């Protein structure tokens, strides 16, 4: 079913889905590890890529392909690839585009492990990288070299919440699985609930006497509010804020929360909290942390879909 002419919420439910010969109303789950071929010739053609088919689930299966097609249609892309983790996706992008002698430009506030992988593994393969404030387009232009092959961005950045103008950054280019399928159908409802709560939480934090500053794209005080309004259809559910007490206050808060889970993921139904300086970005030197805006008092807070009053009460007692 082609859904690209439908609303986004409708596409979340129907894009990429298929039925089987029995008329399944939802995309079937294929749990087999391998697929049998009808003949030796058929198997040879599938292995050679002459004919569409499946070999191992670790390569693909109909359920995984349905997810990939859903993502491609939602993003109006040519195709999609589903991987087992976010870092697997990041590493795959690096591997697909970069080779020895190539150069990448990225944000100095990029997710810590994304930079660690580049500066350890890929640096050993002869790949160079530069990190700049990508919210400043002139800094990006200055960093681009003749061998630059990739501009890797995160917007909003994790966890500093700095935004990058995607369209303007693009103009610098000289060449111009089942549980996810099921879960994405209610994505619009969950995101709407979480970001509505996030706005209330951000407003609460902004008025707390122990909080130095709060960064959330929906706040009028957000430094890049105009850009957020320009390229974001919603403000998301992640908040970053800094505690006046610095590193010790950040660690103490991690140990004081009761409802929020001390974990490093984001975007789930549960509210999560983490301390970037000692967790996700601990692999970076203190100098790089400071250059990236990762202070000891920085807290990243991913708002879930619990009652917002309970989330705020938890913050209140933890602070």
Key descriptive features of the protein:
single chain; 319 residues; alpha/beta; Aspartate Aminotransferase, domain 2; Aspartate Aminotransferase, domain 1; 3 domains; five-stranded mixed β-sheet; three-stranded parallel β-sheet; 13 helices
Helical residue percent? 25-40%
Number of helices: 13
Percentage of residues in strands = 5-15%
Structural class estimated from helices and strands: alpha/beta
Number of distinct beta strands: 8
Q: Please give the radius of gyration in angstroms.
A: 22 Å
Intertermini distance: 50 Å
Q: Could you name the ranges where pLDDT drops below 50 across 5 or more consecutive residues? A: none
Name given to the CATH homologous superfamily of the largest domain: Aspartate Aminotransferase, domain 1
Main beta-sheet strand count, sense and barrel state: 5 strands, mixed
- Looking at the structure, the CATH topology of the largest domain is Aspartate Aminotransferase, domain 1
């Amino acid at each position: 079913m082609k859904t690209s002419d439908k609303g986004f919420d409708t596409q979340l439910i129907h894009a990429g889905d298929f039925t089987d010969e029995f008329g399944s109303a939802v995309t079937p789950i294929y749990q087999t590890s391998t697929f049998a071929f009808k003949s030796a010739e058929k198997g040879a053609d599938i292995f050679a890529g002459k004919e569409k088919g499946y070999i191992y689930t670790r390569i693909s299966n109909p359920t995984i392909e349905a997810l990939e097609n859903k993502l491609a249609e939602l993003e109006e892309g040519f195709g999609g690839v589903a991987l087992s983790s976010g870092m697997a996706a990041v590493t795959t992008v690096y591997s697909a585009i970069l080779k020895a002698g190539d150069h990448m430009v990225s944000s100095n506030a990029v997710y810590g492990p994304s930079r660690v992988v580049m500066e350890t593994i890929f640096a050993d393969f002869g790949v160079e990288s530069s990190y700049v404030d990508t919210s400043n387009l002139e800094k990006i232009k200055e960093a681009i070299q003749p061998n630059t092959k990739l501009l890797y961005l995160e917007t909003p950045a994790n966890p500093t919440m700095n935004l990058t103008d995607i369209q303007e950054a693009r103009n610098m280019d000289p060449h111009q699985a089942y549980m996810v399928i099921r879960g994405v159908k209610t994505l619009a409802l969950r995101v709407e609930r979480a970001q509505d709560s996030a706005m209330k939480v951000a407003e609460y934090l902004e008025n707390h006497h122990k909080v130095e500053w709060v960064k959330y794209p929906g706040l009028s005080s957000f430094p890049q509010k105009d850009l957020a309004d320009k390229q974001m259809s919603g403000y998301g559910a992640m908040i970053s804020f800094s505690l006046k007490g610095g590193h010790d206050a950040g660690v103490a808060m991690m140990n004081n929360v009761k409802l929020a889970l001390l974990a490093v993921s984001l975007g789930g139904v549960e509210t999560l909290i983490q301390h970037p300086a000692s967790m996700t970005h601990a692999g970076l030197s203190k100098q790089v942390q400071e250059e990236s805006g990762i202070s000891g008092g920085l807290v990243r807070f991913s708002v879930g879909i619990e009652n917002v009053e309970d989330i705020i009460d938890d913050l209140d007692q933890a602070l």
